Amino acid sequence: MADHITHDPAYNTVDRDDFASMLDVDRYGSRSDAFDQIISLTRDHHWDPNDPAYIDFDAVPFDLTKQTIMPRDFVIELNCAVAEKLDEGQQIRLANESTRFSLSSILHGEQGAFSLSASLVHILRDPGAQEYAANQAREEARHVADFTRYIQSRWGTPISCGTTLASLMNELVLAPEVYKKLVGMQMLIEGLAMGAFATFHSRTEDPLLRRVVQLTMADEAFHHRFGKIWADRTVPKLTEEEHERVEDWAAKCFQTLLFNLVNAEQKQAIYPQFGLDWQWVRGAVMEAFTDADRRRMMRESTNIFRVLIKTLLKAGIITDRTKALYAAWVDMEELRGEPDEVAGMDVADATVVELREINARNTKVISKALKRDARVASA
Question: Residue 195: how many CB atoms within 10 A of its CB?
Fold first, then answer.
């Protein structure tokens, strides 16, 4: 049997193939109220990527041959010797292909979150936790649709998933242990996504992309909260041996993402069209950007790896055993003193307010249409 490390009945599980346990009559009445608030708020941040009232994919054209979706200083290849091998048009194209890789990775990540949420529905015994996981699966499905439509509107097709992200998500989705799913996806990858979305939102030159990530952030803030509830209810109750297991596994995931997520090897599919060898690109990037540069970039509040460290620290997962691993990159005491919220929450909160207004208008329109149809039917 898998060691789920939950310590709270809200996260109790059954075996993935044990559907008979879901029919236990006593189970239905043993619902935790831990998730009721975020479940009830689901309607507040509802949106539909196929409805122009929320986002219109045809309204904002963008010339990829003349404009970069992200500023040039965001594209690491254009800030080293790679740029010297390319003319102006190639530099613009490489910048946008790099963004295409990043957004494709986000699309693959949303698919991973969708599949993982669905896997939680199969094993969580508590009806409240199960309903929340089902809600999240629905929201992740619309993120997959949303980013698919954006990528189609700009490039046609996404780029294949890098091996690092694909391997990690495969491990998370298939892991039998609940703690790996919740720490790995709901805290680490969702936290990473919020940092990435906050950066895209603040720096993109494409208004359509800004809208895409803005709407997605309204959902992701709640998904991250689900993992935080697990941490608040579970981490203080862990035995020393259990804590070390969770802590070591989280550290392993962090290091995997830090050193492999966006390096040239993962992005090698985009370089041949520019006559570039990925190994040469990797060398040029490593020569231009040192560990000191990496530490400098991690001072930014939306830096994805800073967000990951803060998430683990605030959850009580990092102790003196592994603190040095993270302290090599960020000031841990500075992080400890920062507010206990994930990057991009201000954008997410403002978007929820906007969505409430759109949804209220839509409800009135639907209500009027139903009354009209009822009058016609009775005439």
Answer: 24
